[in-house]
Amino acid sequence: MVNQWTEIGIPPESRLLALHFEPVSGQFLAQLETPGDSGVKALFARRFDDKAYRRLTPDEGRISYESIIVRPESTKILANVFRIRPGHSSEWHSIREIDIATGEMTTVLASEKLEVEPPYSRAWVSNVRKVKKEFDKARQAVESAGASYSGEPGIYSVRGDKDDEILCTVSFRKKNAHEGDVENFVCKVSPSSGKYRKITRLGGGKKDAGDAVVPGVGRAV
Question: In this predicted structure, what is the pLDDT of residue 170?
């Protein structure tokens, strides 16, 4: 199996976590956990007629590409990025946009830019999310009902025509709260201002994705 991985451009002993298809440029996008015990996840891309994958994300040590959003009408994908710390803990780093046709990468929201409002002392993006696209009677795209945000993800990403908001799960922690005491909300976050709008609260506080073991991301939610 090691030789087969090498033949298609994948580092030996990597673990395949997810495989996406980006229809505009006709490329497969593989999310892999790279060799070693750090738990770092990287993205590799391959055009339909290529024989091997090429690494799409740079090797930045402990920078890990977690939840991925593929947009069916664009070659640009969104990735939620964490920095892995010794001991497999992690801290949220940024949301990046990657053009898989050109390899161009842009940070659309850095961790220090996300606004934190009282009574919270910390906030971070746990996941980037998908949402179904709905239409009114005139076939104009409209915002989905709130219930759609907490259900199964659809096939469209949330970024609008003006690219002014991203649908995310944002985790909040209050000052002096226990490490696992986290409140999670589906939010629309503005990359330009770092402000967010809460859509709905998700039930049950999950373990802190900013300080805890890196969350499993077999699919983007």
Answer: 94
